[in-house]
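Notes taken during the Thursday session

The instructor put the following on the board and asked us to keep it in front of us for the whole hour. The protein is Tol-Pal system protein TolQ. We were told not to look anything up and to reason only from what is written here. First, the residues (232 in total):
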Amino acid sequence: MQAEMSITALILEASFVVQLVMLLLLAFSVVGWMMIFQRKKVIQTANQQAAAFEDRFWSGVDLARLYQEISARAQNANGMEKIFYAGFKEFARLRSNSAVNQQQVLEASYRAMRVVHSREVDRLENNLSWLATIGSISPYVGLFGTVWGIMNAFIGLGAVQQATLAMVAPGIAEALIATAMGLFAAIPAVIAYNRFANRVEKIDNQYLNFMDELLAILQRQSAQPKAVSNAS
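Then, after some discussion, the predicted structure tokens were revealed:
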């Protein structure tokens, strides 16, 4: 192959369909990396916030006081502290109602925590499905470009009487570039998806364990005669 037949030249001289495939794969790669950096920041922040809140929660602080602290910045609460806020708010609100028994109070508190838990996990999983989609379809899009390029190369050979390697090599080379670009877009997306899905699952389990622990504490508190101040 001639020296001027560089990768850039192959891309520029590729057929329209192959160029379109390459452009699509480039867009997949850019979007994939944007999602990777964005999800990494969100999940890392959620993990740090959960660890910090658990340290505060198990430091022996009074739960009513902790609730008031979070209530002052409820709009900015996230993750575990938001789950605590929803559960304790419902617990304090219903416990002051004499018409509601202990079991009903605990069930309502747990339901409130479950709703917030579901929303928080959905927030962590946001865009992960796009990473999975990019990782699964990019190789096939690249393969389509490869098949199309090779097909055009062999169609071109049919129009000449004497075929040489120099005639078919550029077409095959540009086709293989599409395959490489498909793998370049897919591999980081698949690795990131698997890693993030595993980290979200761990945070999810951390949330669920905290909910069970908090419910046990609220159950002990509800058995005490001292009333919890009503949460507005």
